User: What shape does this take?
Amino acid sequence: MLGSQYERTGEMEDLEKAIRVARQVADITHKDHPDLAGRLNNLENKLESQYECMGKMADLKKAIQVARQAVDVTPKDHPDLTAQLNNLGTKLNGQYKHTGKMKDLEKAI
Assistant: This one.
């Protein structure tokens, strides 16, 4: 809901609130809960939006870290694993575009 509000208003305060709430939700979700990967995905996407808006590499690095967590908690035979891997790859590709470093592109591949 707060993420949608940010999309409507473009106010960074709304995005920051959405990030705080998404982080709290992910933090209180038990590590074995089936919705944890989805909640982490929600957080990583908001962090990526903050990076896109502010251009701070630290935000993208946080998004990548959370995307890796989402991959790690997704069972290897789960149908959402490909989507989680795709999200991680997209964020790693964004890191490559920011840095221009080949090692970042290799991570994305």
The chain has a mean pLDDT of 92. The CA atoms of residues 23 and 35 lie 14 Å apart. The helical segments are 2-9, 12-28, 36-54, 57-73, 81-99, 102-108.
